[in-house]
UniProtKB/TrEMBL annotation:
Pfam families: Steroid_dh. This is 3-oxo-5-alpha-steroid 4-dehydrogenase C-terminal domain-containing protein. It is a multi-pass membrane protein. It comes from Naegleria lovaniensis (Amoeba). One of its GO terms (molecular function) is oxidoreductase activity, acting on the CH-CH group of donors.
Length: 298
């Protein structure tokens, strides 16, 4: 079986030969041998009416639609980096944002900040949040995609590091005024409970897949009975509580920015799971009453 590989202008790049219908991994491996393009940079698409069609999904199964003489369109994704590396890097900087804001305060503000109770609690919770993220990245998260573009490493790091140091600057500040005590305690309690809820959701998601398996299952239990992405729900709640606790506009902006990113991700996942688990051909039916982010509402 011969498979023609084309570029975006339908020019032939290579002809790959297989004894039977190949998997995407086999196509990538042979293309790497012929063209010296690392497999992590490769993406292949179906050719529809001479144009690039749907992407060929990853998988260990042979690509059923391929025939002798079939054509695939190739795209070079550019330099790639592991998802885990990106996550570890983007969460690393924020761990030091509040301590640096404190120790550098004589150089930034001309005086040493005398931390009050709210600033101490905020510092501890902020550090714990990002240490938790680092540990989850190493021990909990299962990444569906092996790599992402190298550019994302810099883009994501600028986003997280920038917001972290912005929030720290205005919180660890000589003129910072603490909200009422009840507000601080309520915000701190909400932050901790939301953080724990988020962690528990991640554990449930981790236990859905066996090591090395890409089988999709319907998450069940806890808040998953009511929404598709409770991990996002708790993440957003955590940052709203933290913003409430320290009464910070920069932190509220970070919260709204994060919620704005998580919303389309949650909708996409919700739609995808409903499409996958349609109740046909022996597949499970995705719970119809399950919402996206907010139980019973949205």
């Amino acid at each position: 079986m011969k498979i023609k590989i084309l570029d975006a202008r339908s020019r032939e790049l290579a002809v790959l030969e297989f004894s039977s219908a190949p998997t995407l991994d086999q196509i990538k491996k042979q293309y790497q041998e012929k063209k010296r393009v690392d497999t992590t940079r490769q993406a292949f698409y179906a050719v529809e009416n001479g144009k690039r069609g749907k992407v060929i999904p990853a998988g260990k199964e042979p690509i059923a639609d391929l025939r002798d003489g079939s054509e695939l369109m190739f795209k070079d994704l550019g330099p790639q980096v592991a998802w885990r590396t990106v996550f570890l890097t983007e969460y690393f900087g924020p761990i030091f944002a509040f301590p640096l804001a404190y120790y550098l305060s004589p150089y930034i503000h001309g005086e040493q900040v005398q931390l009050n109770q709210t600033q101490i609690i905020a510092t501890i919770l902020f550090i714990v949040h990002f240490v938790k993220r680092e540990l989850e990245t190493i021990f909990v998260h299962v990444f569906g995609n092996d790599t992402m573009p190298l550019f994302n490493l810099f883009k994501n790091s600028i986003y997280y590091w920038g917001y972290a140091f912005l929030v720290a600057y205005f919180t660890i500040h000589p003129k910072y005024q603490s909200p009422a005590e009840w507000q601080v305690y309520l915000g701190a309690a909400g932050t901790v409970l939301s953080m724990l809820g988020n962690f528990y959701c991640h554990i449930i998601l981790k236990n859905l897949r066996q090591p090395g398996s890409k089988e999709r299952k319907i998450p069940r239990g806890f808040l998953f009975e009511y929404v598709t992405c409770p991990n996002y729900t708790f993440e957003i709640m955590e940052w709203f509580f933290f913003s409430f606790m320290i009464q910070s506009i920069p932190c509220l902006l970070y919260t709204l920015s994060g919620a704005g990113q998580m919303l389309p991700w949650a909708i996409k996942k919700h739609v995808g799971l409903k499409k996958l688990f349609d109740g046909k051909d022996g597949r499970e039916l995705y719970p119809k009453n399950r919402k996206v982010l907010v139980p019973f509402i949205f």
